[in-house]
Predict the 3D structure of the following.
Amino acid sequence: KYIKYLEPEIEIIENYHQKISEKMPKDVKFIDGNTFENFEQLLTQLKGDKYYIDIWATWCGPCKVEFKHNNKLDSLLKVNNYKKLLISVDNPEAEKKCKDDIKYYNLVGLNIMASKKLYLDLFNNYDVQSIPKYFILDEKGNLIKNAPKPSNLNKLNEMLK
């Protein structure tokens, strides 16, 4: 008599395991986070392109809620010629879980697991004391902190233009 209540939850779990067993989406690219001493070095490497930067972690519930808006966000970024950079602030031991979440949530774009040095620089110098956190980087290397989150697409659209 309880199966009708359990089946929807079981389907979610089955769907998760199905997605993480698949290959990494082709539009997902990785950068080694250990190659950067600080965020400024990463931003310098990205100069010349426009990026929407999403700082997240596998343990962050609000981050995962925002991922539900990824399809609309990706469309908005494409129309405005922005790329997406996703920075995971997970511990190195969570690399597999991070990659599983990238598959599950289809986090296309440039992905990086922040090194301890990069994370500390974000925390100390860029006000990343809570996540999710969003930035916008223009092609000249100018950084806008506290960009609108994906669930606020109207405000983000205004800012990107």
User: Anything to note?
Assistant: The mean pLDDT is 93. The beta strands are 28-31, 51-56, 83-88, 109-113, 133-137, 143-144. The first strand starts at residue 28 and ends at 31.
